[in-house]
Write a structure and sequence with these properties.
Chain lengths: 300, 430
């Protein structure tokens, strides 16, 4: 009976290539439609003068040449780079310290873990608005500063303070996410290593530097790579805090904000915005490679 | 049953074709692309953030239209205010622009240039006389023949001011400034008397401010901006003085209409533009302010206030042209504009409507006072925002103004740069 219903060898061979593709098809279609097609389309558009309602023509490298002379592009590149430099070290180190703090299983620790994770699930728009209220010239932070005699600080009117404030929000919002990653990594660090170091007379700081850090180093690289890509592509925090024009005189504009501002709307310059997007992509890939290469140098 | 390649191919082709088939125009249900044809068929009407408050009004309006024109069906879609231009862009680029669309003049311009807005001077000229001349002209594009949307409702706003702040500064609360020169004097006085604590304004000057100051915004041909003339420089120089004195809020460089409204509510700013709609907001959210609220006309040095115009555009590619034109006219005719104006603080753009007692007779309420004053001002109001002034241009001007206020550039340099940027963007628009 079994032999009569079992597929023949040739039939098995014929079906094998089909089934996996069929299972993968929904995923592939989604990836194709929402990732590959827009990506290729952006690449093609970067070499055209396409606008929202006009197809445009091939213009070679004209868009990229224009970028070199566009002050706003350099401002965007500067701010996105500063964002990486400001945010990534904080997001690599602070969540690790936070994870060490909440790693111990003591009563009530779940509350703190949840509390630290809450900003991650909060809507960025709500978070942005709350921070704008807090940092307003007449907001809570400035009222407190005034009470203690420091005076009001223009967190939202000075271009550098605005950028720093946005970075602080990014760090505050990201702490919980990376803390969870570190918690998982810390769970794999053998307790014996800590005990042995303690027996050898190592203090808490020494144990952290010589046991914990090497043990979670690959996780730190991962966090560094993820956070640097996210930081370079920052949009929401700066947009919400600095406003659509990108802060005073647009000095807080980031590259992704520039893409949005240039390429959207009925008069959007889709070709030029695509060229900026290509630059963002190239820099992002370069950042990833840099972080991974740095890890390899460290290892070797 | 095992799946063979042939079956899979057939399924894939069907999966691709079914949605594509759904994208067809569906012409089979009647209608005509000729404006003079029979009013029938299904059309789509898109509005701009109106469903939340006026659902019943529009549903009744649509039902009345369908009753008056048997064989028509209007599908109403409403889009949120945020990202409305992007939604229209996506629809226009994707060929899915609704048949009848609620637009503002700056949205019409690129659509008309792309051949997507119907020229009403050709297809609906008979209705022209029903509207105020200025309102009809507001959807005409420099460098193009024709009119590309029916004018719908108009709006202008009074200027609210905080009387108690005026009194504290030793200013007469019953004599608010009316021209820009008076405004600058008042603002400097308020800042001085409050030791820089109270700013009079919270927003940097926009293109409308330059217009109301009397600056020539574009050349006669409408193909270049000219707001960097001596008058424009003079105005920006005055704003710089205000900024340095604290008479223009320090956060003005990054302010939005929402944030300035909040500052006015909290008494941090003495004056703020608004509409009759805001009175209810003051009453509810800041009763103390409401007791001290002063209402005056928009600041203008030209004698004309600024007006905002909403329009209703017909998609040039609609396959139901007679129905789309008839419906766009139905929404904007005198009867329906009047009934809509009685539901919300807007003003009809149809000829003679502003002479209705509803807009001329005062009673003792502030709401009526604002309405009557605004309707009076609208009769010779000007839409100062050039229809070709895109969002990118607004940002360019705003950023250059901010540089001048911060002292990074002189007012002359800043306006020269802004004009150059805007002209370059204008050329790129084609």
């Amino acid at each position: 009976m079994a032999s009569s219903t079992a597929p023949t060898g040739s039939r098995v061979r014929r079906q094998l290539p089909t089934s996996p593709w069929l299972f993968a098809a929904p995923g592939l279609l989604v990836i194709g439609a929402f990732i590959l097609y827009p990506f290729v389309s952006t690449l093609v558009n970067a070499f055209t003068d396409r606008r929202t309602l006009v197809e445009g023509e091939f213009v070679g490298l004209a868009n990229f040449r224009e970028l070199l002379h566009d002050d706003m592009f350099w401002i965007g590149l500067r701010n996105s780079t500063l964002y990486v430099l400001g945010v990534v070290p904080a997001l690599v180190i602070l969540p690790l310290l936070l994870a060490l703090l909440v790693q111990k299983n003591i009563p009530g620790i779940t509350f703190f873990r949840s509390a630290f994770y809450t900003p991650v699930v909060a809507s960025i728009v709500v978070v942005g608005l709350i921070w704008v209220w807090l940092l307003d010239e007449r907001g809570l932070v400035n009222s407190l500063l005034e009470t203690v005699g420091v005076g009001r600080i223009g967190f939202l009117s000075d271009q550098w303070l605005l950028l720093l404030s946005a970075m602080a929000v990014t760090v505050w919002k990201g702490l919980g996410y990376y803390m969870i990653i570190y918690l998982a990594a810390l769970g794999n660090v053998p307790r014996e290593l800590h005990e042995a170091a303690a027996v050898d007379g190592a203090g808490a700081v020494r144990r952290f530097l010589t046991v914990t850090v090497p043990a979670v180093r690959s996780t730190m690289v991962l966090v560094g790579a993820l956070s640097s890509v996210a930081a370079f592509k920052v949009f929401s925090e700066v947009y919400l805090m600095a406003g659509p024009s990108g802060g005073p005189a647009g000095e807080d504009t980031t590259l992704v904000m520039l893409v949005q501002r240039t390429g959207t709307g009925l008069t959007g310059r889709v070709g030029y915005a695509s060229a900026i997007s290509v630059v963002v992509f190239v820099v992002t890939v370069a950042l990833m490679l840099l972080v991974l290469r740095a890890d390899r140098w460290e290892e070797s | 049953m095992p799946i063979t390649r042939r079956t899979l191919t057939a399924a894939a082709v069907a999966a691709l074709l079914v949605p594509l088939a759904a994208c067809g125009s569906g012409d089979g249900d009647g209608g005509s692309s000729d404006a003079s044809g029979k009013v029938e068929g299904e059309i789509t009407f898109q509005t701009w953030n109106l469903r939340a408050n006026y659902k019943d009004y529009f549903e009744d309006l649509i039902a009345d239209f369908e009753k008056e024109y048997p064989g028509t069906e209007v599908k109403w879609v409403d889009q949120p205010a945020e990202g409305y231009a992007d939604k229209i862009s996506a629809d226009a680029a994707g060929g899915t622009l609704p048949d009848v669309v609620n637009v503002s003049p700056d949205l019409v311009a690129p659509l008309a240039k792309a051949g997507l807005a119907l020229d009403l001077d050709k297809d609906a000229a008979k209705y022209r006389e029903e509207y105020l001349e200025g309102a009809w002209a507001s959807h005409q594009i420099p460098g193009m023949e024709g009119t590309y949307a029916f004018p719908w409702y108009l709006n202008t706003g009074p200027l609210f001011y905080n009387k108690s702040l005026f009194e504290k500064a030793g200013l007469d609360p019953e004599k608010p400034p009316r021209t820009y020169d008076e405004l600058f004097d008042t603002a400097l006085e308020l800042a001085e008397q409050s030791d820089g604590e109270v700013a009079t304004l919270a927003q940097v000057p926009t293109i409308e401010d330059f217009g109301r100051y009397g600056v020539q915004l574009m050349n006669e041909k409408g193909d270049a901006f000219t707001f960097n003339d001596a008058k424009g420089v003079d105005m920006l120089t005055k704003y710089k003085e205000l900024y340095d004195a604290g008479a223009l809020d320090r956060q003005a460089l990054t302010a939005t209409p929402e944030s300035t409204g909040k500052k006015f509510l909290t008494g941090a700013v003495a004056m703020n533009p608004g509409s009759a709609f805001d009175l209810g907001n003051f009453k509810k959210q800041a009763p103390n302010l409401y007791e001290n609220i002063g209402i005056t006309d928009q600041i203008t040095s030209t004698g004309h206030v600024n007006m905002y115009v909403m329009g209703v555009m017909v998609n040039a590619n609609t396959s139901k042209k007679p129905a789309a034109i008839a419906f766009a006219h139905y929404v904007t005719d005198a009867e329906h504009q009047m009934s809509f104006a009685k539901k919300v603080a807007i003003f009809p753009s149809t000829a003679g409507s502003l002479d209705d007692p509803y807009f001329t007779k005062e009673d003792d309420t502030d709401e009526t006072r604002v309405r009557v004053a605004s309707a009076k001002a609208l009769k010779d109001a000007v839409n100062y925002t050039p229809v070709l002034f895109s969002e990118q241009m607004k940002t360019a001007l705003r950023n250059q103004v901010a540089k001048a206020l911060q002292g990074k550039e002189s007012p002359k340099e800043a306006l020269d740069n802004a004009v150059n940027e805007c002209n370059q963007l204008l050329r790129q628009q084609g």
